[in-house]
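User: Show me sequence and structure for the first protein, then do the same for the second.

Assistant: Starting with the first protein.
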Amino acid sequence: MSVKGRREYVHAGKAFAEHPGASLKRCRNLKCERYNKDTVMFIDSHCHLDRIDLTPYQNDFSCFMQAVTENRVEHMLCISIDLESYPTLCALTSGYPQISLTVGVHPNVQDGKDPTADELIRLGQSEKVLAIGETGLDYFRSEGDLTWQHQRFRRHIQAAKTLKKPLIIHTRDARDDTLKILEEEGADRIGGVIHCFTEDWDFAVRAMELNFYISFSGIVTFNNAKAIQETAQKIPADRFLIETDSPYLAPTPFRGKPNYPIYVRYVAEKIAQLRGVTVETIAEQSSTNFKRLFNVAC
């Protein structure tokens, strides 16, 4: 296959990953997107690697990681949602410097350990842990008296402030209470990211005033995501991240199918289209923002 200048085709492994079950012979015949290898590198700021379906990768995590590298994903932030699976998460990602971790318990998790602030601080002291979370409020899946959810959220914020590490925030149908608790607990002193953004521009402005970044997932590619797309158009270039939230919320054209970190480029492509800039620009801006927020060089 000919290569012009410094532009290269992505390895057929990418096509294999995007079309699980397809043969490699078929995948070699699929048209692959072209990017400038020297300039386009993506960071997936939110994924759940312990929940990824490895079937397209021969059930081998190392094969999965090879495909990630071939598809120019230079770093991934792997998110903790409970403490029971945290040791497995650490073991799975050990030895991969391109994977960082968070520690926290998701607001909807009720059948596992509810951590104290001291437990979060102890686990969060690891150099591999960049942030605390994901934490926050979710009134969509949880019902009744949610005092316990508020208390858990506050403990995560307290731990993050002690560690001086950013927060990964999940919020669903709880916008006002989420912002209220962040403000009451002084979360602006450490900041963080509103992950998988599903609110509107007014919420984004209030979050940014509290020192939080806005992270866009595959939802921004959905045709009915008008408020999210408006926010993606308006967001300052130094205040956004991109993510997959894989294995959930696959972007168009894979909506409804398992999601993978290699699909983060579709998020970047949509935001580039909305903002009238190149994919290279979005990749560079989001990566720079990630490194600034989490104080890493990747």
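Switching to the second protein now.
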Amino acid sequence: MRKKIRTATEKAASRRKARRGRAILARKARAIETIASGSACDAAANLALRQGIYAGKIYRITSSVAAKQLVAAVVALLAEEFGPAPLEAFRRLQFTLPGQELFERMGKVRKTLFARPELQALVFAVLAEQGFTAEANAVDPARMRAVTSGGHLNPLAAPAYTAHRDTWYSNPQAQINWWIPMHDVGVGETFSFFPALFDVRVANDSADFDYDRWAAEVGFQNTSGLKAVYPSASGFDEDSALPFACQAGDIMLFAASHLHQTAKNASGATRFSTDFRTVNLDDHNKGLGAPNVDNLCTGSCLADYLGS
């Protein structure tokens, strides 16, 4: 009799697992939508786009002329630092330069991008192309990211590979993330979303993060290697991961509160991308945005955004 009860329990658990698996697959299937650049230019379409993002939708925007111009400008910055060469040559610098030197010089490129107004103006061109006006949005300046092949094997880089929501770093619930690959990328070179956990509480240590302390002691453009709090998730369902591939100049548009995790790049070359963030100020002031299900951090980074 005991064996029959155990078997029935196991069958019930198997059915629950199967149902959960089907639900995860269904949510993955509708999570990423591809749209053409400029398809949400008017106010009504832009509002609908934002509302979809706040509800968990992820958009891949293709054929953006402005995004490709931004990518070209960032590649030109790399050429200023490392000498004229195609992007593919910069992707292999990790094999010819000492690690610390590469880290420091990439840091110089990131700081240059962050500081030059004419380069940040290209960000506003990307926004305008998609119907996001400078008057309506606070904008976090563009940043360049370089994820080396095998970088996940370095213990010091471990925080960069943990699953997290950007809102755990004191980013507003109305924040929208813009991520642009600088070259074609496969699923093993990007990052994964966890759409099934978008509005589900996940265990995390965001309560340890305070933005004012972070800005004073470390900062996002810091290359000093100082230790800091990097909020991350724990005990979540990693099987619900949704990786993706996209082409150079595509734009991945998603809510800052989406749980996501950088892929462990084993492609044999550094992955380059650029990204920035926007916050519609009217939405923010009205308390609109993605749901906050588990964010316990303190402070706000919004005051550091352009136009805030």
